[in-house]
Amino acid sequence: SQLSLCAAVMGALESRGVLRRMSDMLEMLMKRMDILARLENSTDFHKGDEARFPLDRFQPAAGLMERIQAIAQNVSDIAIKVDQILRNSLLNGKVMEGRRDQCEVPRDPKYPDCAGKVEWMRARWTSDPCYAFFGVDGTECSFLIYLSEVEWFCPPLPWRNQTVAVPSPPPPPRAQAAFRKDLARLLELIGTGKESLSFMKKRIRHLAQQWLRAARRLEQRLAGRQRDQKHILVHIGFLTEESGDVFSPRVLKGGPLGEMVQWADILAALFMLGHSLRVTVSLKELQSHLGVPPGRGNCPLTSPLPFDLIYTDYHGLQQMKQHMGLSFKKYRCRVRVIDTFGTEPAYNHEEYATLRGYRTNWGYWNLQPSQFMTMFPHTPDNSFMGFVSEELNQTERQLIKANKVSSMAVVYGKEASIWKGKEKFLAILNKYMEIHGTVYYETQRPPEVPAFVKNHGLLPQHEFQQLLRKAKLFIGFGFPYEGPAPLEAIANGCVFLQARFNPPHSSLNHEFFRGKPTSREATGTTVFQVSSQHPYAEDFIGKPHVWTVDYNNSEEFEAAIKTIMRTQVEPYLPYEYTCEGMLERIHAYIQHQDFCTTSSLPPSPKTKSPAMQSSPSPLALSPNSTHLVWSPSAGWAPQAWPPVASLQVWVSEPQHTCTETCRRHGLVCEPTFFRFLNKEEVFLQLSIACDSTEYEMNHLYPAVAENVRECYLQKEPLLFSCAGHNAKYRRLCPCRDFRQGQVALCRDCL
Fold first, then answer.
1. How many CB atoms within 10 Å of residue 210?
2. How many domains does the chain have?
3. Is the whole model's pTM more than 0.70, yes or no?
4. pLDDT at 86
């Protein structure tokens, strides 16, 4: 800009003046030294002033004179060079100014949006101070400089100083991640000032020894395997003031703690794995760490993103999009979104969700579905993050067994509203068991809680755990959905009794689910639906630890209570919810999940060459001819994770999702494998006759409509989905094996 040019000229003039003054002073010093030297040779000087000026004061005078002369010459040379630079810069400035007045919008087919962006800048460049921050001053040239050097919509201007492409030296070797030996530094990183942060730090301290033991075990199993240390930003968006932070004030009043339990465990796991963390719970800190320029968020970041990974939630994702400008699109592949209920592909793809009516408050981000990380493994389309429950040692298990009270029940739910309308169930339960509650209240007992219930009020975690260790039954009344407490109860030797929802709860009949970006089982009329309060406990644990019954059937409900009282159960905790299980899972994700390498995506049908379409399939029929597997004679195996050796291709029945189809074969649906079976040849290999084959955008494809012999392949890779079914289609389903107790990982995934 003109101001910066003036500043440069003034700076140069000032520098030249300083150098000239230095030269003059050195010249004056030399003259005085010369006079002293002449006086030294005078006998009168020696005779009269010998006492005041000893001779040895002048012995080094000749050498000093030479050094001063050399300095003076250097200063003089520098002053001449500054003069030359100044003349050249003034001359170039005039040329540049002339060019600035003559800038024209280039017509380059490689930059089709350039003219439109310049037009926008003419009208709107003052709408955000960030443009002026990057040097935009209203001239055509400043627009083009910005759009070619800060953003990338216009070609570089030929008269701008272009840095010569010099081969950059290879990056230095990355620091290696080392398992940490204590959690003190993490507690400092989390900070203070919010009840939610205090709760998370208490949880981390309480589980510290379990994390340390788990880290030692995993370290031994990995046997010194190299792990690059990642720079990770953890931004907990729902705790920022800008998002309302409704959670912190309710921590001490019975509010939901599930999200904070999960975030505490994520922080502990990332830290114990040895990665470098930054933790933020404010928008200002987020902007500072990202390098957001001053303004309203329309410009890119001021420097390359300094983080390899960013863990955040939907609130944080929205904040990043608002403040990162074009950099959000560039770096969104590094984001991992902690998403309690999950986001299915049909809701994630903005265009498709809009066309099909799947738009919600939270979906349409166009991320890779595996970037969303859930609390429970209810949808294979997303990554299962999870949390941890406390493990018991042998002594604790024996104490629990000895102290269990077979006639004691604890009700799941800290808010009085959960108890409303449950008098009928409570009356039946009260016939057989002493009922305990942990409902929050300030002064008066909540009227929703019957008098025969022993209400302890809101308990600290340790005391709540002691209550569970005595109780035989932990009973849910339908809400909250999918929280951590049932797993904690089962881990402490309780039986969990919950209601079967008939019909399933969904966005059509329950306000809580409206706007959730998932159907759990997407269909033509997609709705979010769950069959019970805790589907994971129902599907992955089951009897004798979990009983799911129809509460509307009093006889079934009462019979279940009687049977539970007679049933002996041991404390049980699935491996995937132990500290070691969570460390193992997150380690595998960090090592292997890469959403920034475009080669991991399948080629678009539009760009596929005939040679690629006719390439032989690497799949082969299994020995019993029921499904396809990766052929041992394929001759190649892609750098895929999970490894392709775990792949099995099965065809679903009508009305079955791929999730259900794989589960029926003792497998898990693996959406990253869809790209290997999205080919015409696969239909032939499975003896499926196709009169026609079409590429279309549909979350149910690849699939076949058998009654009309029409086959469909997926046109949009972001829509590959394990969820979804339709009576018209049988779907091609990519399945894989899984580690015992760790459904997120295949047997060879570590």
1. 18
2. 4
3. yes
4. 42
Residue 153: partners with Cβ closer than 8 Å, 6 or more residues away: 111, 113, 114, 117, 147
One domain for residues 154 and 213: no
End residue of a domain, out of 353, 384, 415: 384
Residue 319 lies in a domain: yes
Q: What confidence tier does 165 reach under pLDDT thresholds 50, 70, 90?
A: low
Same-domain status, 215 and 268: yes
- Cβ atoms of residues 344 and 369 within 8 Å: yes
Summarize pLDDT for 665-688 with one digit per residue, the tens.
Answer: 999 999 999 999 999 999 999 999
**Domain span including residue 133:** 101-158
Q: Which of 726, 634, 626, 725 is nearest to 676 (CA)?
A: 634
Pairing type for strands 668-669 and 730-736 reads: antiparallel
Residue 455, pLDDT above cutoff 70 = yes
- In a 13 Å sphere around the CA of 86, the CA atoms on its Cβ side amount to 17
Question: Do 271 and 416 have their domain in common?
Answer: no
Distances (CA, A) of 617 to 524, 613, 653, 658, 683: 31, 10, 23, 21, 11
**Of the candidates 157, 385, 154, 147, which has an alpha carbon nearest to the alpha carbon of residue 262?**
385
Running DSSP on this structure, what letter comes out for residue 742?
B
| pLDDT tops 50 at residue 7 | no
Residues 209 and 577 sit within 8 Å (Cβ to Cβ): no
pLDDT in tens, 332-391: 999 999 998 899 999 999 999 999 888 777 778 999 999 999 999 988 999 999 999 999
CA–CA gap between residue 700 and residue 723 (Å, rounded): 8
∠ Cα 440 444 449 (to 5°): 60
The whole-angstrom separation of Cα 452 and Cα 429 is 11
In a domain, residue 412? The reply is yes
SS (H, E, C) 594-623: CCCCHHHCCCCHHHCCHHHHCCCCCEEECC
Q: Are residues 372 and 410 in the same domain?
A: no
Same domain, 189 and 318: yes
The mean pLDDT value for 28-51 works out to: 45
Question: Is the Cβ–Cβ distance between 581 and 742 less than 8 Å?
Answer: yes
- Which helix (H) or strand (E) is 280 found in, with range? strand 276-280
